[in-house]
# Entry
Amino acid sequence: MAATRIPTRITPQYLENAALHYLERFAASSAGLRRVLLRKVDRSVAHWGGERADHLAAVDAVIVKLTNLGYLNDQAFAEMKTRSLHRQGKGSRAIRATLAAKGVDSELAEQAMETLTEEHAQPDLAAAIKLARKRRLGPFRLPEKRAEMRAKDMAALARAGFDFDTARRVIDADSVDGLEELLTS
# Structure
């Protein structure tokens, strides 16, 4: 049986090193990094004793320092995550929900969505078509299966964060060429 790892005692230098190591590996928002650091604090306090509140100022200081150095930028994170989720075929509602779960301020999320709208005339429609192509939904499905799978295809697009009108336009398109015409019009 493997021995459990003893958590490191929390110091300001340890928190800064842990934050830098985390940011080397993952893009994160300020709130996301705060959650990671607080988990480390909680593990250390549970093992070594002490109060969580004693380390909150150090966590906040690390967040402020990394933000001032440019390692943490919530606006850049929101825009990057928005583009990434759009490329995956996620709808605007799903993108907003993901950004909220990552701790991005709703104002920054809206700015990122506006940037996406500037880049793509109809971002939801483009993402829905991309998802339909990837998952072989609607006009990308075999013609003999389209009618019987319509409800499931609509549900798949709804779960991906698309509104009913967008899902209906994609699933009920006559052909793949019809989808391309929808996108360019």
